[in-house]
Amino acid sequence: MSHADHLIAARPAPPTTKKPLTVAKAAGYIIIGIWCLVALGLVYTIITGWDWAKFERYGPRYLDGLKTTIILVTISVILGAILSLPIAFARMSKSPFLAAPAYAYVYLFRGTPLLAQLFLIYYGLGTFRPQLESVGLWWFFREAWYCGLLAMTLNTAAYQAEILRGAILSVPLGQREGAFALGLPKQIIFFDYQTYLWAAIFYLAIVETLRHVWAWLEARLTRHLKR
Q1: pTM for the full model?
Q2: Are the beta carbons of 165 and 92 closer than 8 angstroms?
Q3: What is the signed CA dihedral for 221, 222, 224, 227, rounded to 10 degrees?
Q4: From the CB of residue 28, how many other CB atoms can be counted at a distance below 10 Å?
Q5: Which of 26, 48, 30, 77 is nearest to 194 (CA)?
Q6: What distances in angstroms separate CA 97 from CA 46, 73, 84, 211, one per listed residue?
Q7: How far is CA 182 from CA 120, 142, 176, 178, in A?
Q8: Engineering a disulfide at 102: which of 91, 118, 143, 188 sits with its beta carbon 3.0 to 4.6 angstroms away?
């Protein structure tokens, strides 16, 4: 068996070759520079065009709308998470009487826009006022807030059911069999969804906050078009 008598001396790193400036890279730098200038221009416009009178007049309305949006999204996400559990397990059921309605529900609410669902629930079901009054549900469907909450809950449940079903099916069969062999219950084998629920709540809160801020900036920049 051979062995080394001495270590090989360290060698310098190979020289780095500078890549030439291509047209695509130059265009990218120019586009980034333009976006930076636009961002600086927006900041300058906001600072120089700030009107405290309009902020004091319309600011409470924006804050009230933001509060309503956060409450509506938070409640719908929580209710949607609760509703998504039986839907996800029904989707994975071998019984066609459970799997088929669950598939139709998910396909309908994921394949149609949320705005259309809002209109169908508020205006569509509103045409059945006598029937809803006879069963004592008109108090719910006559309020736009309740209809919006129902539509967002049903829509969120469809998406969360597919996320939950995909997460369960992604667990390898051997891993599940090994966990069952160790005597672990199902609630420990399949992950705790509360972490994902809170992550979804934080994500939606951040998105809605940014959306309202951007809408306010857009209204400020286009205020001269509304005169």
Answers
A1: 0.60
A2: yes
A3: -140
A4: 11
A5: 77
A6: 58, 31, 17, 41
A7: 50, 54, 10, 6
A8: 91
